[in-house]
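Sequence only, no structure available. Ideas?
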Amino acid sequence: MRRTHLVPRRIGTGRDPQPTRELQAERKVAYLFISHDLGVVRYISDRIAVLYLGRLMECGAAEVVFGAPHHPYTEALLSAVPTI
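Reply:
I predicted one. Tokens follow.
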């Protein structure tokens, strides 16, 4: 049986997520990332769901969620992403 979904142990700040994207394209798998680091999530994810206190606050395409967040928690997470 071939896996179609993977839950990686850790993709953190400072790690290069490019190999993850390449593996995703090559093997046609989906990943589930759980993170507060939207800087990494932005690069890796096509779709994003934002949970707050166990409830779904936003869900959609990454460019939509990052471009016009609707919930204050999403805005707070985005404001915590460092800029250079």
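Strands lie at 5-6, 30-31, 47-52, 55-61.
Hope that gets you unstuck.
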